[in-house]
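Moderator note: this is an archived Q&A kept for reference. The question asked for a predicted structure of one protein chain; the sequence and the answer are reproduced below.
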Amino acid sequence: MIIKKGAEADLYLEDFKNVFGFDFYNEKVVIKKRVKKNYRINEIDNMIRGYRTVKEAKIINKAKISGVHSPTLYLVDLKEKSIIMEYIDGIRLKEYFSSKGLDTEIGFQIGKSVGALHKIGIIHGDLTTSNMILYDKKVYFIDFGLSEESEEIEKQGIDLHLLRQALESTHFDISNELFKTILEGYSEVIGQEKKDEILQRIEQIEKRGRYRKRH
C-alpha cells in the first residue's frame, strides 16, 4: 500500500511476512523506493539512485548507532533502489504539537537528538515535525533523504535555521518556547560554546536571507 508519493521516492507500507516470506511479530515495514527519472540517461539515473539509496541507509545506521532513535534497517535493495525498514507506528510531532500544544520535554529530546546528529557529523537536511514521530515516549527521526555527512558550522546552522522556520510556519503559537527548549537539549549534547557559535551563524544566515529579500 502506497502511503506517500514524493519527488525523489515513494513510500509503501507492507507486512513483514509479505516482503520476507516469514512472520516477525506481525510487524509492518516501510519500503522507500527511489523514483526513476525518465529525463536522465538510464545508466546515470541508476547510478544516482543507487548512490543516494546507499548514502541514506549509511546515515540512518550511523544515526542509530550514535543513539538517535531512527528506523531499524532490514534490507538495502540496490536492484530496486529501495530501503526496507522498520515502521514506526506512532504520531507525527506535527499532529502531536497541534493537538497537545507545548511540550518542553519533547522539545528537549528533539534538541538532544539534533545535537547528537551534529556531533557525529550528520546534517539531517529536512528537520520538520513531519519527519519526527513520537512512539513509546521517544522521538524518532525519519526521512534522511536530504541528509549528508558534514561537520561544517554553516551547514549545522542552516539545519537549525530551517527547523526554526518550520516551527514558525507550522506551530507559530508555540514556536519561540519550543525552539528555546530544543536549544537547551542541543546545548546539553554539544556544549554551550559550540551552541553559541552556531547561533551566531544562524543570525548571519538570517541576515543574508533578509538582504536577499530586499534586493
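Archived answer notes: The chain is about 50% helix and 20% strand.
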